[in-house]
Amino acid sequence: MADALLTIAGLQAWYGESHILHGVDFEVGRGELVTLLGRNGAGKTTTLRSIMGIVGRRSGSIRFDGAEIVARTSDAVARAGIAYCPEERGIFSSLSVEENLLLPPVVRPGGMSVGEIFELFPNLKERRRSQGTKLSGGEQQMLAIGRILRTGATLLLLDEPTEGLAPVIVQRIGEAIRALKSRGFTILLVEQNFHFAATVADRHYVVEDGRVVDMVRGSDVQANLGKLQTYLGL
Amino acid sequence: MFELLGIAPQALFGQLLVGLINGAFYAMLSLGLAVIFGMLNVINFTHGAQYMLGAFAAWLMLTVLNIPFWIGLVLAPLVVGLFGVVLERLLLKRLYHLDHLYGFLMTFGLALVIEGVFQWKWGSSGQPYPNPIPGGTNLGFMFLPTYRAFVVVAALVICLATWFAIERTRLGGYLRAATENPTLVRAFGINVPRLITLTYGLGVGLAALAGVLAAPIYQVSPLMGQNLVLVVFAVVVIGGMGSILGSIVTGFGLGLIEGLTKVFYPQASSTVIFVIMAIVLLIKPAGLFGRTR
Q1: Which chain A residues have a beta carbon less than 8 Å from that of B185?
Q2: Smallest Cα–Cα separation from B54: which of B27, B76, B81, B86?
Q3: Which of B269, B276, B278, B275 is nearest to B22 (CA)?
């Protein structure tokens, strides 16, 4: 790819004794929205956590914006400009909505302002004094995404942002993700919800048994529907 | 002079003041323990020894270097807090991934070593520390020594300042968040290991500050922390492990209850706190202000 922001090659990762990733290779272009698809336990979440530097042990190469970051600690990865929204959302119960939103420090200029984030997710503004975990599931997801937009990070890692949400909320999250892409964010999205993924992504990588086994362009999804459904066990 | 339930007011208020003073120390010490436990998940059994180190540091500064109380009040906690930072970097940080028991054994062993060294050098009898604000006020119903009034006010200010720093500031927000989910806070770009070191230094510094304040009231002796810290652990359990507000309220409250017990039923005064602890554990195992995680 001409202008890859993230290039991953031969990435292996372990949790304790279990070998989870067996050599993952893929890349994400600047401003691109790419998904990792695959069945439960294929290694999608572990891939995101490996990029972020929060798995036990990893090897291989992760190049971000020209720099090798595979050996960095997670705080250093964050300061390089990568932000992570975990599957369990990770809203802090001892912090208010506003404190949650303001928690991640700004690592470089160019992030969104709090006003812009409230514009994107108006619910958060109304509830900014509430305890973080008193929000509904959808609002917590908006908060989890919203709080990583201020930091100036250029690459967002989103782990299953639609999991367990009502269809109307999924639609709202989808609109927000498209808005972020048009703002210039590069997004790596892990999704179980293939139909949702198909509506937002430029390209899809299929992960199986700790490896990337296929790549399908967003424009070719219809032509490859049968193959994708077999991969995902749909 | 009037009497209350057959008790002379001088005795009642005198004991209430003693209770308030003790409560001030319970609060400051349990506060530090709560902050450390919340962040490090280590029950700091060295806390009593670090309180003693604060008193000794101030005493040595005064007798050897001629540094007056008010400067020692600032300097001694800094020195002891720095010692805490070194302990954390050198020893404690190697234990976080292990069972709680290792942290307990390490901090407990450290307390024995530190107290042993001081006992070997200075013996167990106390060293007097001159009162920096002699005199007092006759309030009519009791005599109020100025220094003791100062200690109560200072302890309140220290407790509220610590509460404010943790509950209302940005750094405090990092601390609360890292208590819940250190991995994620680190993935946001915050240097959590450094935050942990600072927290331990702060908790230890608080213990030392309490020690300096205690020096003119109690004597400066190697075992001064050992006697106190047992009660403080009961206070922490009653207030709720890791609860900041719980430590402050329970510390002062239990000091007062202990003082009142000395007036009305002196035989129970040394056990009343432990009786309360047993009752609280039966009814609310997480403590009065504690949250079950």
Answers
A1: 103
A2: B76
A3: B269
Chain B residues in contact with chain A using a Cβ-Cβ cutoff of 8 Å: 170, 173-174, 176-177, 179-181, 183-192
**Can you give the pLDDT at residue A1?**
56
Q: What is the pLDDT of residues B1-10, one digit of tens each?
A: 456 666 777 7
Helix B192-214 and helix B146-168, axial crossing angle in degrees, nearest 10: 170
Token representation of residue A54: 């929060």
Using one digit for the tens of pLDDT, what is the confidence trace for A154-178? Answer: 999 999 999 889 999 999 999 999 9
Question: Number of structural domains, chain A?
Answer: 1
Listed residue (A56, A48, A148, A47) closest to A107, CA to CA: A148
How many residue pairs from chains A and B have C-beta atoms closer than 8 A?
A: 58
**Mean per-residue pLDDT over chain B, rounded:** 90
* Residue A97, domain extent: 4-232
Average pLDDT over residues B109-136: 91
Among chain A residues, the shortest Cα distance to B170 is held by A103
Residues B182-188: what's their mean pLDDT?
Answer: 94
Q: Which residues of chain A register pLDDT less than 50?
A: none
Among B98, B96, B116, residue whose Cα is nearest residue B46: B116
Contacts of B194 in chain A (CB under 8 A): none
Choose from A99, A157, A158, A159 for mutation: most chain B CBs within 10 A. A99
Neighbours of A171 (CB within 10 A): 14
Q: Report angle CA A159, B183, A23 to the nearest 5 degrees.
A: 55
Please name the residues in contact with B157: beta carbons below 8 A apart, sequence gap of 6 or more: none
Contact call for B180 and A92, based on CB within 8 A = yes
Give residue for tokens 């993230």: A6
- Strands A211-217 and A203-208 come out as antiparallel
CATH of the domain at A181: 3.40.50.300
